[in-house]
Specification:
The protein has one domain. It contains 9 helices and no strands. Helix 1 runs parallel beside helix 3, helix 2 runs antiparallel to helix 3 and helix 7 runs antiparallel to helix 9.
Length: 180
């Protein structure tokens, strides 16, 4: 095999990534680990953009939010929180170049920037959470804590899918290849 030709295995993985058929966190993490473990530099470089695009699609297709909400049935995860984390990641070049994995970046941003508690408090103050009842400050604080705990648990569960943070230093092949 020529060192300038992409292997059949890499081409097959690229087709699978580009098909959108694998659009769950578990599936994408498995494919990501396979892609990062590729030994041939030509294959590794060829896989970088399709892996990055697959994670972008996962977030932009709302599958990311859907999976977060499956983990938080009592207090459905906030779409506004996901949108704010996305905005912050996209507006911060230093964050964007930490990883090819947009879902991981959003989860980390939610934690690092303290977004979970802030949005949980906003959620607790929504009138639809209380119906006709007017909550006391203690009740508001208690609900905000419960919401934040549920959302933090969901974020932690998702982050457990990466025993090693998916950063460019994770793979020597992908080092120095920031997302396009």
């Amino acid at each position: 095999m020529s060192s300038h030709r992409i292997s059949k295995a890499a081409r097959d993985l690229i087709r699978l990534l580009e098909s959108g058929q694998m659009n769950t966190l578990t599936d994408l993490c498995r494919l990501e680990r396979t892609a990062v473990a590729v030994e041939e530099e030509v294959d590794s470089k060829a896989l970088q953009e399709p892996v990055t695009a697959a994670w972008r699609y996962y977030v932009n297709s709302n599958q990311f939010l859907i999976e977060l909400r499956r983990l938080t049935p009592t207090f459905p995860f906030s779409g506004e929180l996901v949108a704010e984390a996305y905005r912050r990641v996209m507006n911060d070049p230093e964050t964007r170049t930490r990883s090819w994995n947009q879902a991981w970046l959003l989860l980390v941003k939610m934690k690092e920037d303290g977004l979970l508690m802030g949005y949980a408090s906003t959620e607790a103050h929504k009138q639809e959470m209380w119906g006709d009842m007017i909550p006391s400050p203690e009740q508001l604080a208690s609900l905000a804590t419960d919401v934040e705990r549920a959302w933090s648990r969901a974020v932690e569960i998702m982050l457990r899918n990466w025993p090693i943070a998916p950063t460019y230093s994770y793979s020597a092949h992908w080092r120095g290849l920031p997302p396009s």
